[in-house]
Amino acid sequence: MFQKVLIANRGEIAIRVARTLKEMGIASVAVYSEIDRDAPHVRAADEAFLIGPAVPAESYLNIPKIIETAKEAGAEGIHPGYGFLAENAEMARACDEAGITWIGPPPEAIEAMGSKTRAREIMEKAGVPIVPGSTEVAKDVEEARKQAEEAGYPVACKAAGGGGGKGFRVAMTPEDLEEAFEGSAREGEKFFSDDRVYVERYLEDPRHVEVQVLADGHGNVIHLGERDCSIQRRHQKVIEEAPGPHVDEEMRERIGKIATDAAAAVGYRGAGTIEGMQVGDEYFFLEMNTRVQVEHCVTEMVIGIDIVREQILVAAGEPLSIGQDEVELSGWSIECRINAEAAHKKFAPAPGPIGDSYREPSGPGVRVDSGVEGGSEVTPMYDPMVAKLIVWDVDREKATKRMLRALSEYDSGGLTTLIPFHEAILATEQWDKGETCRDLMEDRDWLKSTAPETAPDPVAEDGTELVSRDYKVEVSGKLFDVKVIGEAGAGAAAAANGKRPPKRERKSGGGPSASSESLPAPLQGTILKVAVAEGAEVAEGDLVCVIEAMKMENEIAAHRAGKVTSLNVAEGAAVNAGDVIAVIE
User: Fold this and answer.
1) b/e string for 495-523 if b means 16 or more Cβ within 10 A?
2) Are 578 and 519 contacting, i.e. CB atoms less than 8 angstroms apart?
3) Which residues lie below 8 Å from residue 157, measured CB to CB, with a gap of 6+?
4) What residues are paired with 231 via a beta bridge?
5) Which residues is 553 bridged to in the sheet?
6) Is the dihedral of CA 250, 254, 257, 262 positive or negative?
7) In which order are the strands placed within the sheet that holds 47-52?
8) pLDDT truncated to tens, each residue of the chain (585 aa)?
9) What burial class does residue 63 get, using C-beta atoms within 10 Å of its C-beta: 0-12 exposed, 13-18 middle, 19+ buried?
10) How many helices, marked H, and strands, marked E, lie in the chain?
């Protein structure tokens, strides 16, 4: 068994791995970028090493530096978590060459499943059902058109090396194909250094059902049941649950066999996930994630097994601690991703500082995997995830009520998060019926209704700014919440004592007013694409540019019809929140 393991990641997953290592009596080594010096994951490990600047390419994605650090620390193994280098075959090989154990699957399995077209080809040969479409990349748009015609519209253009919703674009009609193809290629190049694209049929409202698999070096391959991850934004998950609400015992056994057959077909080892699409009683292989998943927690809650521990045991040459006949599902688990995003603003990233009031829920059946604390800051440099809130109870109805209770206890410390969105969607009839909720996720008016409950500071009749303050007052032994509204200056004494209440977030409609000619950037990021030119005529809703922030592309549309009289952005340039992108008169 290992004596020391380096964790090549940050945030909640780094803390998650460090905890398991500690329980196993293994020393842990954290790595951090310059911006993460004070991050909680640094303190969670026994040792910590600086590996570079904030830019991921120079730190968390810097393979030579991570290998060098592991050697310096005397680490015998490297656990990559998820994201960053977790599915990087080059990293796995670099570990082998350095004499360090890679706590993940063999590089050959990563490569086989990392290429979506090759994975589809392997699965088809293994008798695993795949979504109708091509098993080869399209060299250009014209070839993509031929693949689309064969698959049948609507189609999905997908980055061959993609995953996690990156490089996924939908073309509903032939007229949409070129834009979808180019967008998919662009994201593939940006996130995976691979601009190859293939085309498959787009299933319009399938359930996203995935199966957790474990495999060791002794010929054992098992599955731990399924997770339903159908509630997504931009093809990225926001709520997951186990088991699947529309999976019966017959289907569970069938898709479990599909998953173990798929893993065996590539000589898999470690923890992995077979993702698929459920359409009624049909199930199609989608892709394999050759790593531990963000949502592995819900499977742990219903199976009672530490998946990260199994990864470490397998990497150390041990057999799995559990056999297929010992796997039993108990109860129901739900996970809500607490991301720093504004659902009411089309899930725009919302980085920022976290106040000292930050408080995570607790109590029976509640688990929080978090990477932050009061005083932390969610930066635009990395993923917007703040924490994962997971609950367990005996059935889906009770688990939902427990989740709503836990969400109500969560204080995000003033940071804009998905908590209001989660509270809203879990209270809907669609969720209650176990639907995909895709109608709600695409309903802009409904999403706007999930805005945080904030209000502008009141103003007196003479125009004086008034400030609203909340107090707790005890009268005859009973506690009351009291709101006091007064002139802003009246709070000077309180401010002097360091007790000024935080200023309320002003509620807005989520964008510029149509009466304003200026179109401001709603967030900080990098301009990926400029879709208009100065002097162009645009209609309200036309695409003006695309801003990349926190690993997401955000389309910025014209807030009014008119002529673009000033264009202040260029592709590749940085932009700050509030900067004027364009003037439309």
Assistant:
1) eeeeeeeeeeeeeeeebbeeeebbbbbbb
2) no
3) 144, 168, 169, 170, 171, 177, 180, 181, 183, 184, 197, 198, 199
4) 239
5) 548
6) negative
7) 47-52, 27-33, 4-7, 77-79, 101-102
8) 999 999 999 999 999 999 999 999 999 999 999 999 999 999 999 999 999 999 999 999 999 999 999 999 999 999 999 999 999 999 999 999 999 999 999 999 999 888 778 888 888 888 888 888 888 899 999 999 999 999 999 999 999 877 667 788 999 999 999 999 999 998 888 777 789 999 999 988 899 999 999 999 999 999 999 999 999 998 889 999 999 999 999 999 999 999 999 999 899 999 999 999 999 899 999 889 999 999 999 999 999 999 999 999 999 999 999 999 999 999 999 999 999 999 999 898 999 999 999 999 999 999 999 999 999 999 988 989 999 999 999 999 999 999 999 999 999 999 999 999 999 999 999 999 999 999 999 999 999 999 987 644 455 555 555 566 777 787 877 777 787 776 655 443 444 444 444 433 333 334 565 568 999 988 778 888 899 999 999 998 889 998 887 767 788 989 899 999 999 999 988 888 789 999 999
9) middle
10) 17, 30
Phi, psi torsion values for 159, nearest 5 degrees: -65, 130
Cα dihedral 518, 519, 525, 526 sign: negative
Closest C-alpha among 42, 44, 20, 16 to residue 31: 42
Pairwise CA distance, residues 127 & 210, whole Å: 18
DSSP per-residue string spanning 363-375: STTEEEEES--TT
Amino acid (one-letter) located at 81? G
| Residue 303: alpha-carbon gap to chain centroid | 23
The answer to whether 509 touches 522, Cβ cutoff 8 Å, is: no
Q: Which residues 6+ apart lie within 8 Å of 11 measured at CB?
A: 39, 41, 371, 372, 382, 383, 385
Q: Are 214 and 269 in contact (CB under 8 A)?
A: no
CA torsion, points 6, 11, 15, 16, in degrees to nearest 10?
Answer: -100
- Placement of tokens 């593939």 in the chain: 188
What is the Cα–Cα distance from 510 to 543, expressed in whole angstroms?
A: 17
Q: Are strands 478-487 and 552-557 parallel, antiparallel or unpaired?
A: unpaired
Angle at 305 between CA 270 and CA 258, to 5 degrees: 50
Q: What is the pTM of this model?
A: 0.81
Q: Which residues pair with 339 in a beta bridge?
A: 385
Q: What angle do CA 555, 560, 563 make, to 5 degrees?
A: 100
| Locus of tokens 């993923």 | 383
537: amino acid identity, one letter: E
